[in-house]
Amino acid sequence: MTKTLDNLLEGCMLIGFDWTYLYVNEAAARHGLQDRDKLLGRAMLEMYPGVEQSDVFRHYRLAMEDRIPQHFETSFTFADGTVNWYELAVEPVPEGVFILSLDITQRKQSEEALETAREFAENLIEAMLDGFSVLDKDGRSVNPNPALCLMTGFSRGEPIDRYPPFPYWPPEEDEPIRAAFEKTMKGEVGHFELTYMRKNGERFPVVVSPSVMRDQHGNILNYIATVKDMSREHEALDALERSESWLRSIYENTNTGIASTDSSGRVSGFNEAFRSM
């Protein structure tokens, strides 16, 4: 049996009622950043000063003194400042407690990195000036950002957790919007010029740019889309067109002759008043 335990990838320890290490395999010694031979016959409190103040020892004590099995994940800070994470199963046995350990530090670090990346992405989306929407693989709205809510006038509680048509889809624009939506659901992404509706009923132009998020196997996880309010751009274009129309009217109807020249000084254009001069 001892030989079998010696070869396990999991750490195995047998600790007596006086907290002395009665058995330690190589994996457990590595988990404790110690040599196996240095642990055997020595007391835990001697090898890890201050351990009695740790969360790990609290669980050990419950198993040792109250005979209550323990199964938990915890971190432990060693004397050199190293912090490792472990999954531990502690079973009361006649000799004291038997402990199985797994070093889950790498998994915890990966989870922490993933959580950091998730928080960064969420903060980025929250700070975006353009609208941003996330749909699940079935097309249900799950996460419109503040910019989209501000743009449409609908709160997160209104467009979220529902399927299309969404409240910012004008009824008369259902056909082109639904066509763009269905293309997106098929993975045919691009840029769609559409008309949305604010909560007060005002219609406004948008450019919707969707994309598809897939897992490593190509399965669809989510659909995401940026929504740009084109109202100002359209207003500026309308103002420019009105200005050009006004200038053209002056050019064509004024009694003052107007001519334009190219870079060499040649007349390249003139109005009727100039022609009559």
Characterization of the model:
Keywords: Kinase, Phosphoprotein, Transferase. It is an enzyme of class 2 (transferase). Residues 190-242 form the PAC domain. The chain folds into two domains: 2-105, Beta-Lactamase (2-Layer Sandwich), CATH 3.30.450; 129-231, PAS domain (Beta-Lactamase). The chain has a five-stranded antiparallel sheet with strand order 2-1-5-4-3. By secondary structure, the chain is of the alpha+beta class. It is built from ten helices and eleven strands. The chain is elongated. It starts with a helix and ends with a helix.
Which descriptors apply to this entry?
single chain, 277 residues, alpha+beta, Beta-Lactamase, 2 domains, 5-stranded antiparallel β-sheet, 4-stranded antiparallel β-sheet, 10 helices, 36% helix, 28% strand, elongated, PAS-assoc_C
Order of helices and strands: HEEHHHHEEEHEHHEEEHEEH
Trace the largest sheet across and list its strands.
2-1-5-4-3
Helix content percent band:
25-40%
Q: How many beta-strand elements? A: 11
Strand content: 25-35%
Please count the helical segments: 10
* Cα-to-Cα separation, first versus last residue: 116 Å
Please identify which CATH superfamily of the largest domain we are dealing with. PAS domain
Query: Total domains, how many?
Result: 2
Task: Give the radius of gyration.
Answer: 35 Å
Output the CATH topology of the largest domain.
Answer: Beta-Lactamase
Assigned CATH class of the largest domain: Alpha Beta
Shape call:
elongated
Q: List segments where confidence is low: pLDDT < 50 over at least 5 consecutive residues.
A: none
Catalytic activity: ATP + protein L-histidine = ADP + protein N-phospho-L-histidine
Organism: Acidihalobacter aeolianus
Keywords: Kinase, Phosphoprotein, Transferase
EC number: 2.7.13.3
